[in-house]
Amino acid sequence: MKTSYDLVVIGGGPGGYEAAIRGAQLGFSVACIEKRVHKGEPALGGTCLNVGCIPSKALLDSSHRYEAAKHEMAEHGITTGDVSIDVAKMLERKDNIVKGLTAGVAGLLKGNGVDWLQGTGTLLDGKGAEKKVKFAALTGEESEITAKYVILAAGSVPIEIPVAKTDGEYIVDSTGALEFSEAPKRLGVIGAGVIGLELGSVWRRLGSQVVVYEAMPEFLAAADKDISKEAAKLLKKQGLDIRVNTKVTNAEVVNGEVVVTTDVNGETKTEVFDRLIVCVGRRAYSEQLLAEGCGITLTERGLVDVDEQCKTNLDGVYAIGDLVRGPMLAHKAMEEGMMAVERIHGEKAQVNYDTIISVIYTHPEIAWVGLTEEQAKAQGYEVKTGSFNLAANGRALAQGEGVGLIKVVADEKTDRLLGMHAVGVGAGDIVHQGMIALEFVSSIEDLQLMTFAHPTVSEAVHEAALAADGRAIHAISRKKRK
């Protein structure tokens, strides 16, 4: 095994493996250290690929197809008869997708000449010209590696809460919720964020009675209020019992059931579930990552302190993804990994944090980019907005997806687009149009002057832009026309 590299990346998740590959493309000798073992095999791809983004989307798709076959085909004139779900087969499909993709990442590292070191990496000393990293192999051997540059990309893990300790069977985290052998009759979920809504949706479609507890007084507080209001209406209509301003004070297993105690405005209530999912957020994973005296500065929240280019306080040491400030999103980590490597190479790469997209993959999807109406007003903008309901979009109706809306937020004085928000079919893809427009500092007029193909769901973006000036064609507007 080599003991000296130009670049050592600690962490083989989306940000880490992309940084390693880009480093190799730029001519560095690169090692990527990853300790994850998934279902008995060493695995690259981090949380996202193994127990996060990808497997959850596989289950979301399977469960949606099941629900569509069972409840929605009749209106298309399609008779399906009795429909059943083989959960074991669904999980097998999910696992095969994960296995194929993780193998693909391993192939990419190998094809680019990156050494995948299977084990734990610890930064021993980052202060000198030669950084020192301890490598503890999965097989037990330990060695010291030197590198000119180090990128820390260890990712994050689910936050544990003392009032609902996970046991891997009855009370589980997001990883355990991907492995239920059957749909629980009664399912509780602590946390109405991205993970809670997605996993709650999966098992609700498969037959579970789902209650989602949210301690915050508002549903999806990070989203634009019009979008969160519409999303709450649609999700509740689907059967998700979402309870805001509800704090879980205790959860314990009694006779094979989970007894959950909550506090709602001082009133104590108790409910019983077959399973409980705890998904109240994630925290940076720094265990065994930083040796005492390595020189790295941490923030008060335990994150690695970095500048806008992800450089730490030590020359030649960078940190990316969930270890640092900003949203814990795989695509953010990916771009930060690329930026860090290119900065090391002497290029002027930069991530535009104002255009990071957020997506919740419920059905319909919820997504946004840029400023919400509330944020824009708080920042002093004179705001104008435009919205268009998908109930008036021909393509959405033809697909049986005529629910939700698209909303744009703009500066009244300059006409500059400030944000785009959506709840509806393909919302995650739709808001990429807003991201591109924001990157190029587009105006609402720019969107108004573009020709959108008919019939497409994207026409709703055009109509929303027109609506910002009272010019929507397929909706009656009370706003003064310009």
Automatic annotation (TrEMBL):
Matches recorded under InterPro entries: Class-I_Pyr_Nuc-Dis_Oxidored, FAD/NAD-bd_sf, FAD/NAD-binding_dom, FAD/NAD-linked_Rdtase_dimer_sf, Lipoamide_DH, Pyr_nuc-diS_OxRdtase, Pyr_nucl-diS_OxRdtase_dimer, Pyr_OxRdtase_I_AS
Chain residues that bind FAD: K57, G121, D322, M328, L329, A330, H331
Main location as per UniProt: cytoplasm
Superkingdom as given in the UniProt entry: Bacteria
SUPFAM superfamilies cross-referenced by the UniProt entry: FAD/NAD(P)-binding domain (SSF51905), FAD/NAD-linked reductases, dimerisation (C-terminal) domain (SSF55424)
Cofactor binding mode and count: Binds 1 FAD per subunit.
Binding site for NAD(+): G191, A192, G193, V194, I195, G196, L197, E198, E214, G281
Protein name (database record): Dihydrolipoyl dehydrogenase
Single GO molecular function: dihydrolipoyl dehydrogenase (NADH) activity
Gene that produces this protein: lpd
EC number annotated for this UniProt entry: 1.8.1.4
UniProt similarity note: Belongs to the class-I pyridine nucleotide-disulfide oxidoreductase family.
Cofactor: FAD
Keyword tRNA-binding: no
Organism: Moraxella caviae
Keywords carried by this UniProt record: Cytoplasm, Disulfide bond, FAD, Flavoprotein, NAD, Nucleotide-binding, Oxidoreductase, Redox-active center
